[in-house]
Amino acid sequence: MSLVLDHAAQDLLFREARTANTFTDEPVTEEQLQAIYDLVKYGPTAFNQTPLRITLVRSPEARERLVKHMSEGNQAKTAAAPLVAILSADNEFHEELPALFPAFPQAKDLFFAERPVREGSAAMNAALQAGYFIVGVRAAGLAAGPMTGFDFEGVRKEFLDDDHTPLMVVNIGRPGPDAWYPRSPRLAYEDVVTTV
Predict the structure, then answer these.
(1) Whole-number Å distance between alpha carbons of 44 and 99
(2) Residue 66 contacts by C-beta under 8 Å, 6 or more apart in sequence?
(3) What is d(CA 129, CA 116) in angstroms, rounded to the nearest whole number?
């Protein structure tokens, strides 16, 4: 059985897509970001919770503040990318649940009254949304460079607050010269899937 999505779209989103390590200086526009969000906001999450928060790092001053928290191998590419996004989980996401999940407005208090429960749910569902965000960046014809090599607590203190947990930093733009490392191997279907 073949996929419904045409081969060119499959290549754009998955087979040919890579983590970019260099970028051109072509800017990423607000219109592109709005289009990306307007697409990926439909990705499923538990109770339709939407804990992902996106902090766009655009100014040179903010970029400098971020770069100092990046691991050494991630500093140069983060300094040079046209746009950088800090993706975080909002641990107070439950406040929006009555509007986002009107079929069961009691979910806010019934399931998410305790902070540790919210933190676990926010981390899992924001990570799902981060995956959708990366695919959305690719759908816009841009490259994403997601990274977890940074000082999480430093980034939280510098850009967020105690209610937000950083998940990853994503460089975004058009790929530049020598943007790609060679494609790394993937596990085969039979190594991943078990039928019981």
Answers:
(1) 16
(2) 57, 78, 84, 86, 155, 158, 159, 169
(3) 20
Considering the chain, what percentage of its residues have pLDDT values greater than 90? 96
The CA–CA distances, whole Å, from 10 to 2, 42, 43, 140 equal 11, 19, 17, 13
The pLDDT tens digits of the residues spanning 49-71 come to: 999 999 999 999 999 999 999 99
Please give the average per-residue pLDDT across 32-57, as a whole number.
97
Identify any residues that bridge with 170 across adjacent strands, giving them in sequence order. 85, 146
Q: How far is 87 from 99, CA to CA, in rounded Å?
A: 23
pTM (2 decimals)? 0.95
Tokens 């406040």 belong to 95
Sorted by sequence, the CB contacts under 8 Å of residue 171 that are 6+ apart come out as: 20, 23, 77, 78, 81, 83, 84, 144, 145, 147
Strand (E) positions, the chain?
52-57, 83-90, 143-147, 164-173
Contacts of 133 (CB under 8 A, 6+ apart): 36, 40, 52, 54, 85, 87, 144, 170
